[in-house]
């Protein structure tokens, strides 16, 4: 059997003859060993020539198959017989034969070209593939690994080599040694390419193009399935909702630091994500997960670009101008809108980013389960919430609402809104809000009482006279506050100041029931006076005829204003000449709704916001004024007696139309202001008469409007942003004065 004996480097006939020698320049030192390639390597001629028939048949391709065809055949067979895929017990041996056939066939194809590169490459038949050579280049860059391989090879030389001095091929030979051996061969091939290009003028680029193609294909294989990225993303989102954003980022960062496959670039990126925190940090971790799949786990340069881009983007977004209503899309909820207004105010004030984050995050979020026996003997379970946002300026203050759609985001937004509202009113409170997801109309009085008492038992340690003072809100009333007072007193003794909005007989303040509506009237008067007008003679439309809307309508009617349309849950009515509010009060008391009132004709409840009027007062739910109806609104002034009735998209549209909007954090602050008066009376043990309450309320509302206008002039902004800037500035100053440190 004919054999070829190669020295390292080997003198080779450039024309393809095996009997002549051809020296390749200054690096072709005869009998000199380069690296750790053995002096003589034996390659069977049958492996190169006649043995090809069986190898081609193993792969299922003809002898004249191209390199691409051989690769495709090998891939298909590998997908079928690879031990990690096939369940066949003999798959391992079959795959070894397929792999060996591919190496021999592919190598012979290169050898048949007759180039110097191909002849050198023929020595790879028994030892490795192009990809293994490429991988070895990375091994060569690691000196400790190189020394380890050298020791192993020296040991192999003296223990495994036969006495004749020839090294025999073993298919199970150590992968690391084999890889390093062919990395050394590739170095020779690279020198050969250099010599051929600059001394003989020949081009050996075809082989290297093939290697580059192999590298690109290998990258795809190293990426792994995209499902890993999806699993990582879903795990991050699950942890964020389960244990919170901060703990989720901490977990992700620790896992990244412990992952030996990730290089330092990724680990630095995860640390930056942990430092960033919040949604920006979560976004960065998702970007890093995708980058590790797309670019491999050792691509520090790409990771650095991703980290820098996110870091710069998060800071640029804080200062870049953006139009109202376009940042969060169509379905911006109350929390997103409140956060947006806060960030705009913080930008105007130039707050430190860490202080801004500190003011935005709630002090405490509470979620409790309330299980009660119903009147029919069954058990019913309800979820209650209490969010305590900030206490820099005093005890936290906010209502408790009973409504089926109560959720954490809504409660969080309203708690934050209370923080800015109490600051705008300049009363010594922070912000809080609570609620239970229930429908009061579906529960009996006794069931509501049991639910209220169980909720109080769950949170009594977290509320208090100087800690957190609840009040009525949607679905609750003075009786609800009386139950809370009684249950709280069982644990802490009689404490009338623990809640406000109580019945007068239990320490409630005179004028508290009309406070929010009266405050809206005083706010309207201040705004109209600013424009040289008065309430008398103005045409009003009021959406909502509950506690706030009904009192606003009554007081406006007393001041000479003309209420031309009102609505509630039962329907809407209109009278162009003005509705008799006293008669409407009697009708509502008898029928529990405005529907059917004899002195007005019914209209579509959805169209009440676009009725012709001078002043529109939304006093019901939030989000009722949006981009769909904003263009049709005919009012010149909007008084937001409800919480968050106007979406940012509508805000922008109305501003362009010249409509003046009095924002909710000022316009409906009359209720919390009189709650403060009640709290003061309870602590002092001294009751005020109703005139004093109303006079003090007017003083606070008038002064508040002046403060908002001054802030608007200072920062050249509209009333909403002036009110937010005023509130945020007061809370920020109190926070810093109490010893906040960056």
TrEMBL record:
Residues 54-153 form the J domain. One of its GO terms (biological process) is L-glutamate catabolic process. GO terms for molecular function: glutamate dehydrogenase (NAD+) activity. Keywords: Membrane, NAD, Oxidoreductase, Transmembrane, Transmembrane helix. GO terms for cellular component: mitochondrion. Its EC number is 1.4.1.3. The chain crosses the membrane at residues 233-258, 270-294, 300-317. It catalyses: L-glutamate + NAD(+) + H2O = 2-oxoglutarate + NH4(+) + NADH + H(+); L-glutamate + NADP(+) + H2O = 2-oxoglutarate + NH4(+) + NADPH + H(+). InterPro entries: Aminoacid_DH-like_N_sf, DnaJ_domain, Glu/Leu/Phe/Val/Trp_DH, Glu/Leu/Phe/Val/Trp_DH_C, Glu/Leu/Phe/Val/Trp_DH_dimer, Glu/Leu/Phe/Val_DH_AS, J_dom_sf, NAD(P)-bd_dom_sf. The keyword Oxidoreductase applies. PROSITE patterns: DNAJ_2, GLFV_DEHYDROGENASE. It is an enzyme of class 1 (oxidoreductase). Belongs to the Glu/Leu/Phe/Val dehydrogenases family. This is glutamate dehydrogenase [NAD(P)(+)].
